[in-house]
Amino acid sequence: DTGVSQNPRHKITKRGQNVTFRCDPISEHNRLYWYRQTLGQGPEFLTYFQNEAQLEKSRLLSDRFSAERPKGSFSTLEIQRTEQGDSAMYLCASSYGQGDGYTFGSGTRLTVV
Amino acid sequence: AQKVTQAQTEISVVEKEDVTLDCVYETRDTTYYLFWYKQPPSGELVFLIRRNSFDEQNEISGRYSWNFQKSTSSFNFTITASQVVDSAVYFCALSEGRIYNQGGKLIFGQGTELSVKP
Q1: Residue A9: exposure state from Cβ atoms within 10 A (0-12, 13-18, ≥19)
Q2: Does A110 touch chain B (CB under 8 A)?
Q3: Of A82, A85, A101, B78, which sits most exposed with the smallest number of CB within 10 A?
Q4: Taken in order A44, B29, B100, B94, is the CA torsion positive or negative?
Q5: How many angstroms separate the first and last alpha carbons of chain A?
Q6: Of A33, A100, A106, the CB nearest to B42
Q7: What pLDDT was estimated at residue B38?
Q8: For residue B52, which of B33, B27, B39, B73 has the smallest C-alpha distance?
Q9: A48 and chain B: CB distance < 8 Å anywhere?
């Protein structure tokens, strides 16, 4: 297993368009997390799944954001009607139980123009 | 409420110098976990260390060492004999014990950008 994979690496979209990102976690990891990181800031928690169940959502996750993890494997994060303020790096991480911290992917950088 | 403060936004050193990155945290929990992550220019966060609140023993791993002091709510990170490859953004993070054990979130500081010049 080569780690947590995120696609695409970069996405440029026009304001108002919908975008979807994909995260493939490490195969034996049952927990999957989404974080958002803006320039010069640390990552901020968005949501997490244990298997296919979404157990927690941050207040940062407005109703334009939705995340799914069908069958407890890969996950998608969709942003509808994108706004310029959505421009950020979207990071996915996975873990098995408590683990030694989470394994992060390289992220998807979203630019809304 | 949980909070992590990394007061140093940027640090620049010359290769072979020692450098300490500061991290101060706030939590009301008695059980919690502290982390350090490295984020090189490629963007991927690389796990460095996890420490639980009951283990105040300092840790050394090669050129890296960590000083955990509950009395001052600090978890500082020192790189000895820095190298150019250490250039990255370093993040300190916190998770309250109950939340972490249930698989919950990390609270990150704003990060310290370390630049090591040859």
Answers
A1: exposed
A2: no
A3: A85
A4: positive
A5: 35
A6: A106
A7: 96
A8: B33
A9: yes
Q: What is the mean pLDDT of chain A?
A: 92
Q: Do A42 and B4 lie within an 8 Å CB cutoff?
A: yes
Given a cut of 70, is residue B102 above it in pLDDT? no
Q: Map residue A11 onto helix, strand or coil.
A: strand
**How far is residue B43 from each of residues A1, A80, A92, B81, measured CA to CA in Å?**
19, 25, 12, 24
CA dihedral of residues B37, B87, B65, B22 (deg, nearest 10): -70
Tell me what pLDDT residue A99 has: 54
Q: Are B13 and B19 in contact (CB under 8 A)?
A: yes
| Confidence (pLDDT) at B98 | 67
State both tokens at B113: 């950008």
Contact A90, A100 (CB under 8 A): no
- pLDDT mean over A14-22: 98
Residue A90 in contact with partner chain B when CB distance is under 8 A:
no
Quickly state the pLDDT bin for B55 (edges 50, 70, 90).
confident
Q: Place A61 in a pLDDT band, splitting at 50, 70 and 90.
A: confident
Beta bridge partners of A76: A22, A68
Structure tokens at A23: 């995260």
Decide the pairing of beta strands A19-24 and A10-13.
unpaired
Q: pLDDT class for A11, splitting at 50, 70, 90? A: very high
